[in-house]
Write a structure and sequence with these properties.
The chain is of the alpha/beta class and 301 residues long. Helix content is 32%, strand content 18%. The protein has helices at residues 21-25, 54-59, 78-83, 96-109, 114-122, 148-159, 183-189, 209-212, 232-241, 279-300, and strands at residues 2-3, 6-7, 9-13, 29-32, 43-46, 65-68, 87-90, 140-144, 163-167, 179-180, 192-195, 219-223, 244-249, 268-270. The strands form three sheets. Strands 10-9-8-11-12-13-14 form a seven-stranded parallel beta sheet, with helices on both faces. Helix 4 packs across helix 6. It is elongated, with a radius of gyration of 21 Å. The N and C termini lie close together (10 Å).
Length: 301
């Protein structure tokens, strides 16, 4: 509600953000994390946990804006929000470095046998012979999706002396740091494959038995994109056969996953959807949220 030169509103923080954010938002009105006040809220801040479905939006009878802190909007019914004249935006530029660094960490951990070596030491086992390593140097990294996160990962891979190739539905995306290839070329030519695509009808289940068969034997696969982009059962089968040498995964069909065969599969490094959870990234998300609300308020005056 607008009174003179001041715009008063209720901002509802639905998920976990940087602890400094509520105080930074007080200039715009009241800030709460009480989900029961959803019907009063004019702005709702969500991350991955909250699902802004039709039913959720129908409860938010006063809502004017949804800000999703992070990359992707698959947990927000954008079309229905639009029907209700609710602005729905996200903060994709904030998370690129955090997610790229986690993808790179998974890519380093697997061929260096870091998890196996660590667990062996904790158990009193000296697994020196069992922990055979391979280097990233002069290996080929294939990106499926070469947008903001893919670009950051490519820069880091090149610093390690890797060749980087990429497939993206946007022809020429970040061609200054990656060599553009077809989807099948990336699958067949890469020693490491990292997924950086949104959840869409064309990407759901894209890493399946048929496409795994096109990959090199002993390929390493990293997924910090969306859990639905892979068929977990096909990944497990390929891990058991050795077709896939290792699978690093941070994303799941649900948070947390209700059940997954990956937790009992060999040669996996699994993390609980922490790609965007760095302290620095949460601060960047907060900065962008503040700017978006400032713009929203200015346009309403």
């Amino acid at each position: 509600m607008y009174f003179g030169k001041v715009f008063f509103m209720l901002i509802l923080i639905c998920d976990a953000f940087d602890k400094s954010l509520p105080n930074r938002l007080k200039e715009f009105g009241e800030v709460t994390d009480d989900i029961a006040r959803l019907p009063e809220a004019e702005i709702a801040l969500v991350r991955s946990k909250t699902k802004c479905t039709k039913e959720w939006i129908d409860k938010a009878t006063n809502l004017k804006m949804i800000i999703r802190g992070g990359v992707g909007m698959d947990n927000v019914d954008i079309e229905y929000a639009k029907e209700k004249n609710i602005i729905a935006v996200n903060t994709p530029e904030a998370s690129s470095i955090a997610v790229a660094e986690l993808a790179f960490a998974l890519m380093i951990a697997m061929p260096n046998q870091i998890i196996k070596g660590h667990e062996g030491m904790i158990q009193g086992k000296w697994l020196k012979k069992e922990c055979k390593r391979t280097e990233l140097y002069q290996k080929t990294l294939g990106l499926i999706g070469s947008g903001r996160i893919g670009r950051e990962l490519a820069i880091r891979a090149k610093a390690f002396g890797m060749k980087v190739i990429a497939y993206d539905i946007i022809a020429g995306a970040n061609a200054d740091v990656v060599e553009q290839k077809t989807f099948d070329e990336v699958l067949s030519q890469s020693d490491y494959i990292s997924l950086h695509v949104p959840k869409t009808p064309s990407t759901i289940g894209m890493i399946c038995k048929e496409n795994i068969a096109k990959m090199k034997d002993g390929v390493y696969l990293i997924n910090t994109a969306r859990g639905a982009c892979v068929v977990e059962e096909d990944i497990v089968e390929a891990l058991k056969s050795g077709k896939i040498a290792g699978y690093g995964n941070d994303v799941w069909a649900s948070d947390p996953p209700e059940s997954t065969p990956l937790t009992s599969a060999p040669n996996v490094v699994l993390t609980p959807h922490i790609g965007a959870s760095s302290d620095e990234n949460l601060l960047r998300i907060g900065d962008i949220i503040v700017e978006k609300i400032k713009t929203f308020v200015a346009e309403k005056k």
